[in-house]
Amino acid sequence: MGSIDTTPRAESGSDPISTPNGTTANGLPDGEGSVHPPAADATGASTENESLRKRMKGSGVLPLETGTRVMCRWRDGKHHPVKVIERRKLTRGGVNDYEYYVHYTEILDEWVKLEQLDLNSVETVVDEKVEDKGHEELDAASLREHEEFTKVKNIATIELGRYEIETCKCDLKHPPGDEIYRSGTLSMFEVDGKKNKVYGQNLCYLAKLFLDHKTLYYDVDLFLFYVLCECDERGCHMVGYFSKEKHSEESYNLACILTLPPYQRKGYGKFLIAFSYELSKKEGKVGTPEIPLSDLGMLSYRGYWTRVLLDILKKHKGNISIKELSDMTAIKAEDILSTLQGLELIQYRKGQHVICADPKVLDRHLKAAGRGGLEVDVCKLIWTPYKEQN
Ligand SMILES: CC(=O)SCCNC(=O)CCNC(=O)[C@H](O)C(C)(C)COP(=O)(O)OP(=O)(O)OC[C@H]1O[C@@H](n2cnc3c(N)ncnc32)[C@H](O)[C@@H]1OP(=O)(O)O
């Protein structure tokens, strides 16, 4: 695959304007605030800007107006053409000390310090024109209003454990709910979608990014979210979650499950599934995951059902019915039947299903089903089923 050139290109209209009388648009004589920005490195530009700032204060150029076009030093150390979208005053600054929210052509918009801006390149012609052709259907007033609300990205990054992801940020130390399980560095929080609507919706959006076949629910009031976290001195960092309807007609005990990609294949999916069945046991109900399952979801569930059922069959002496297995595990009878049928452990004799559990065959299947992963220590689960809270 060829490499992609992501270096932003200068727009034709972004060169500094030179006026006929030999001064640049920033009011400095041509040559002093020269037409083309000096190819200064990061440090050089900063020192130069500092002295320029001092010289230009009197000329009224600072603070820069919104709409001003100027060259801005990005984190690659290069200068790129930007337009000032917004400015905000520095709390401890002087009268003209602002930082600026700038719009790049090919990079994400961001707040920048004055030192990053090359004041030699300032165009003071403030662009009031409506430029966005995609919004032609909007009238100028509503477009201005739309731009006003959407122009500044208020959240720059989100931090999940060791990962920092641009565009959003969460400063909560833990999910906004009750910690219902803690074992070592792992904690599980129960978040009520009704009490924490935005948080619940954001979890759904996050899961949707990794799931094609699920419908996105906006009405999160009806759901509880079980958020699994790895905890350290800096807080509890989500590794995955599952959602669950507060009341399910279809006896679903899990609506949607997600392990965040950096944490997948570490056993958290198995843990979340096991946890959902422990909740069902506490409720005294059988449960099943909402269908359809994704391929990875099906793999994880098949593995869980196989291990749980075959472990019981291995230890159990005498006959056991599917109903008994269901009562012991909270796994719905249909799922037990399909799992055992898939493993060819069910025979139909004299009008009824019979489980044929040869120990050697069970061992072979158990081996193939893989590791059990992280165990849910039920003694550490402190939880009251939802209905009992009303
Ligand atoms: C009801 C529903 O919500 S269905 C939708 C399920 N969710 C999704 O598909 C969202 C995207 N996927 C995910 O979030 C995850 O892959 C999950 C939740 C399905 C599984 O989470 P994980 O934390 O990776 O599961 P875990 O580490 O416990 O592994 C479960 C088992 O599934 C299988 N598995 C999981 N991922 C893979 C993979 N990429 N390739 C092959 N097998 C896999 C393996 O058998 C694995 O066990 P093993 O590691 O011992 O071999």
UniProtKB/TrEMBL annotation:
Span of domain MYST-type HAT: 93-385
Principal localisation: nucleus
Top-level taxon of the source organism: Eukaryota
E.C. number(s) listed in UniProt: 2.3.1.48
Reactions listed under catalytic activity: L-lysyl-[protein] + acetyl-CoA = N(6)-acetyl-L-lysyl-[protein] + CoA + H(+)
Location(s) in or outside the cell: Nucleus
Enzyme class: transferase
Comp. bias regions, Polar residues: 15-26
Keywords: Acetylation, Metal-binding, Nucleus, Transferase, Zinc, Zinc-finger
Record InterPro entries: Acyl_CoA_acyltransferase (IPR016181), Chromo-like_dom_sf (IPR016197), HAT_MYST-type (IPR002717), MYST_HAT (IPR050603), Tudor-knot (IPR025995), WH-like_DNA-bd_sf (IPR036388)
Residues forming the catalytic site: 290 (proton donor/acceptor)
Region: Disordered, residue numbers: 1-60
GO cellular component term of the entry, any: nucleus
Family indicated by similarity: Belongs to the MYST (SAS/MOZ) family.
Name this polypeptide is given: Histone acetyltransferase
UniProt record, GO biological process: regulation of transcription by RNA polymerase II
A molecular-function term among this protein's GO annotations: transcription coregulator activity
Keyword flag Acetylation: yes
Organism listed in the record: Anisodus tanguticus
UniProt cross-references to SUPFAM superfamilies, sorted A to Z: Acyl-CoA N-acyltransferases (Nat), Chromo domain-like
